[in-house]
Specification:
single chain, four-stranded antiparallel sheet, 50% strand, 0% helix
Length: 127
Amino acid sequence: QVQLVESGGGLVQTGGSLRVSCAASGTTFSSYAMGWFRQAPGKEREFVQAISGSGDNTRYADSVKGRFTISRDNAKNAVYLQMNSLKPEDTAVYYCAARFTSNIYIIYARAADYTYWGQGTQVTVSS
């Protein structure tokens, strides 16, 4: 069983930056592929970025290319999403997700691939 807790959301102006964090407990963290998803009001949950258990491989959605960066610290059981050049359309609840895998280099981009989810953290970008 894995528990995920996000933090670091908040209100920021257009063009600003935020870093959201996800702390995991109850696991060998490097055995889990991790992902960030977001859900805006009235919209479906969408993929943002994902990272392999090793941290060597990442994947991102085109909408955040060049602006967001995912990273992880396996020693601290944490994954991060650094968000720069934020836009109002980035406003959403951001969720981290985890999936156990024996392949530490694999990444997953579909919500259905993930087993564990955090409660989410709100990010609001004002125009």
